[in-house]
Design goal:
The chain contains 8 helices and 12 strands. The chain is of the alpha/beta class. Helix 6 links the parallel strand 7 and strand 8. Bound molecules: threonylcarbamoyladenylate and magnesium ion (MG).
Amino acid sequence: MPTETVYGLAGPAADPLAVAAIFAAKGRPRFNPLISHVADLAAAERIAVFSADARRLAAAFWPGPLTLVLPSQTGSIVCELARAGLDTVAVRVPAHPTALALIRAFGGPVVAPSANRSGRPSPTSLAHAVDETGDRVAVALEGGPCRIGLESTVVSLLDRPRLLRPGAVTREEIEALIGPLAEAEADAKRSPGRMARHYAPNAPVRLGADAPRSGEAYLAFGPHPPGPGVWNLSPTGDLAEAAANLFGLLRAADLSCPVAIAVAPIPEVGLGEAIADRLKRSAGYVG
Ligand code: TXA
Ligand code: MG
């Protein structure tokens, strides 16, 4: 299913067989839990326990690219496999009409990890999603290119608020509402998604490159002469445009079979924090 962030591999959150098929299609380790997608706050409260901070964030950013990790609700129908056995659940309301229509028509929570195979760049178009996991799905819903292009921001509200994954809802926007965010814990059980090499193309990725070396593909940012082997994330240096282009251009550059993909320096403020996070992981840096 399309969402405003990336395409997801969707299935009923309550059905362990469907959820197992999703883990298998992605080749995803079963200790890494899935996000449950719901249509509104009322549906979210049937599967998660909301604190005052959680309500504030949901009111401000849903529908939208923000996932909240909260205590699992008593009697929740989300199956244990979807939560990877944790007593917590990740939940979000996507801001894409097709996703919302699917969730409403289905009438229950829908798990949807990004539709890439585990460790690969997330798909931001239906064609990319079909390339990744299309052989394993019953139906593929066209929803156009993803407006945001990076996965949702993930915030854990279990003890102190923590930023588990930066995204289009920025740290600054969240902190303005609920105060300072702690960093993700080293504890892999609480932040199971923070594995080092992730979002990776086949070619190695070299960051902070002012220019390509011989044989390298180049992802430029800001004014740069066009040419063979050069893809520009945003000629005007716009972070939202760069985010929307990032995974698609990593794929395009990769298809040219370069010795490496060199990426221009990108400012790490606002949305730049999420871009830098994905780039560091695609390059295999421990985050
Ligand atoms: O934008 C998105 O969030 C996309 C679209 C399709 O909605 N989905 C997505 O799902 O990115 P996925 O599975 O690729 O990433 C979910 C992230 C993982 O890093 C996972 O570890 C984390 O959320 N997560 C899920 N449940 C969690 C939990 N109970 N505690 C901590 N982290 C959790
Ligand atoms: Mg993913």
